[in-house]
Amino acid sequence: MNRYRCVVEYMGGKYDGWQSQTLGTSIQEQIEAALLRITGKKTNIIASGRTDAGVNARMQVFMFDTEREMKERKWMGAINAFLPDDIHILDVKLVTFRFHARYNVRWKKYAYRINIGPYDVFTKDYEYQCPIKLDFEAMKQAAQYLVGTHDFTSLNSSPLSEYPDQTRTIQSIDLQENNGHIVITYCGKGFLRYMVRMMSAQLIEAGRHRIMPQDIEKILAAKSRTKARRNAPACGLTLEEVNYFEIAALDEGGMIREYLQGDDLPTGMTLKETEAEMENRTYPLHLVMTTRHSQQMLARVVITPGEAQIFSVCREGRNEAVSLLVQFRQWLGMIGLDAGMPVIIR
Question: What does the record give as the active site (predicted)?
Answer without folding.
Answer: 52 (nucleophile)
